[in-house]
Specification:
Two copies of one chain form a homodimer. With 235 residues, chain A is mostly helical. Chain A has a three-stranded antiparallel beta sheet with strand order 1-3-2. The termini of chain A are far apart. Chains A and B meet through helix 3, helix 4 and helix 7 of A and helix 3, helix 4 and helix 7 of B.
DNA sequence: AGACCTGGTTTTGTATACAATTATGCGCTG
DNA sequence: CAGCGCATAATTGTATACAAAACCAGGTCT
C-alpha cells in the first residue's frame, strides 16, 4: 500500500468502513451525489485508498439505511425512491416525530433549548446565504434540528429510525421537490422550538405534524425519469 | 396495494449472505441462540459451507438490526440489550404499533382477516403443546401476528422497523421475562384481531397499546449476569 | 436499417492469504 | 500455590486473486 511507514494518525481498526460510510452518507444527504448515481466499488476504493472489502461494507451499511440500492451482480447506486416509497417515508415520519416531540418536551433542559436555538441560527444563516454550498448547509441544518429533537427525547432506537427517514426524505425532496418552501419550513422550525422551550408538548407535537404535512405538500409526486417521458407523450 | 402477506425483508445483497442472515435471525429470535452467545466467523462459515466474506456480510446485517453486537477486533455475539435499551424498544413499539393497527383497520380485507385468524389458530396450537419446539413456534407465531398487522397497514418502511423491534423484543424477553403471561397475550391478540376485523381502528389501536404495556409489565428489568451477583451481595 | 451474435472489457461475488490483535496455556518465580 | 510473562494459538481486519456475470462495441446476417 501507499503507507510503508506506521505514521498513520488514526490506525483504528474497524473505523475505516465507518469513515467511508459516513462520508458517502453526507454526500448523498446533501446531494453532492444525486439519486441514480452509480457507486462503483473500485472508484470509491481509490478515492479513499481502501480496498473493495471495506468499501463493500460501507455500501452495505448505506443499503440498510435505504439510501443506497444494491442490485445483485449489478452494483450499488444512490436510491431513487418511488412515489410510493416517498409517501411511506412521510407517513412514517408523521407516525414517529410528533410523539418524539411530545417526549422531548417532557425532558428538555435549558442546555437543549440553547442547542436547538443554535441550530435555528445556523439554519437562518444558511438560508440567507447564496450558492450551492449554502443550500447544502441548509439541508444539513434542517435535518440536524429534527434529529436533535429526537436525541432530546432520549430514545436511541427511534433516533436511528428517524436518521434513516431524514436521509430518505432528502432523496425524496431531491427527486420530487419543487424548490422553495424552505423559508416556510424555517419559520415552522422556530415555532416548534418555541413550543418545546415552553414545555408545551401537545403544541410541539401538533406543530410537528403540520410541519411534516407542509414539507410533503411541497412535493410533486411525478415519477422522474422515464415515466415523465410517458406522461409528456400523453399530454 | 392490498398486498397479501408478502413483505420483502430488507435489501438482499447476494443470495448467499441473505440466506445465512435469515437462518441466524430465526435462530436468535426463537432463542436457539441466546443473548451473549459468541458468533465466530469460521464456525458459521463451516456450518453453512461459505467463506468468511459472506458470513461477515450476514453478521453485519444482523448487527444493523441490533440483534447482534459487533465489537472491533473482538468479533460478533448475540446482543444482550440493557434494561435501558429494553425500555426503549417498548417505547418505540408503543409509538409505532397503535398507529399501525389504526392504519391496518382502514385497509384490511377479508383475506387479511382470514390470514390473521390463521395466525391465531397456529399460535393457540403452539401454546397448547409442550416442549421447547412448541415454545419456539409460539414465539414465532406471536411475532408473525404483529408483523402481519404491519404488513396490512401497507408501509414497508414501518414494517421493517417493526421487524427489528420484534426481534429485539425477543431478546429482551429472553433476558428479563418471567415466564408465563403468554396466554394472556394470546387472548389480547384475539381481541385485537376482532377489532381489526370489525373495522374498529380506534379500538384496535387502544388494545394494541395495552397489549404492549402488558408484555412489558411481565418483565423484570433486573440486569442479568454480573449485576445480579452484585444485587445478591447487597441483600 | 435493425436485430442479433460475439469478443473483449468492466465490475461484481467469493475465496483465500497475510497481517494485526486478542485470547490462551504453561512454565517460572516468589 | 497464586501471580506473572511470554510464547503460541485463535480470531478478526484488510488486501488481493480469480471466476462469473453484466456491459459495450462492432460486425454480420436477414
Amino acid at each position: 500500500m501507499s503507507t510503508p511507514t506506521r505514521t498513520e494518525p488514526i490506525p483504528r481498526t474497524g473505523t475505516r468502513a465507518g469513515e467511508i460510510r459516513d462520508q458517502l452518507h453526507d454526500a448523498i444527504v446533501d446531494r453532492r451525489l444525486t439519486p441514480g448515481t452509480k457507486l462503483v466499488e473500485d472508484e470509491i476504493g481509490a478515492t479513499f485508498s481502501a480496498s473493495r472489502t471495506v468499501v463493500r461494507a460501507a455500501l452495505q451499511a448505506l443499503a440498510f439505511d435505504g439510501i443506497v440500492t444494491l442490485e445483485p451482480n449489478r452494483g450499488a447506486s444512490v436510491s431513487k425512491p418511488s412515489p410510493e416509497v416517498a409517501r411511506q417515508v412521510f407517513d412514517a415520519r408523521r407516525m414517529i416525530e410528533p410523539g418524539l416531540a411530545l417526549a422531548a418536551a417532557a425532558r428538555i433542559t435549558a442546555a437543549d433549548v440553547a442547542m436547538l436555538e443554535q441550530h435555528l441560527a445556523t439554519e437562518a444563516e444558511a438560508i440567507a446565504a447564496r450558492g450551492p454550498s449554502a443550500r447544502r448547509a441548509e439541508i444539513h441544518a434542517s435535518g440536524e434540528l429534527h434529529l436533535s429533537i429526537a436525541a432530546i427525547a432520549g430514545n436511541e432506537i427511534l433516533s436511528r429510525f428517524l436518521r434513516e427517514l431524514v436521509a430518505r426524505s432528502s432523496l425524496v425532496i431531491a427527486l420530487y421537490g419543487r424548490s422553495g418552501a424552505s423559508s416556510c419550513a424555517r419559520d415552522e422550525h422556530g415555532r416548534i422550538v418555541a413550543a418545546l422551550a415552553s414545555g408545551n408538548g401537545r403544541a410541539a407535537a401538533e406543530l410537528m405534524r403540520h410541519h411534516i404535512d407542509h414539507i410533503e405538500a411541497d412535493l410533486d409526486y411525478q415519477p422522474a425519469g422515464e415515466a415523465s417521458i410517458r406522461d409528456l407523450l400523453k399530454l
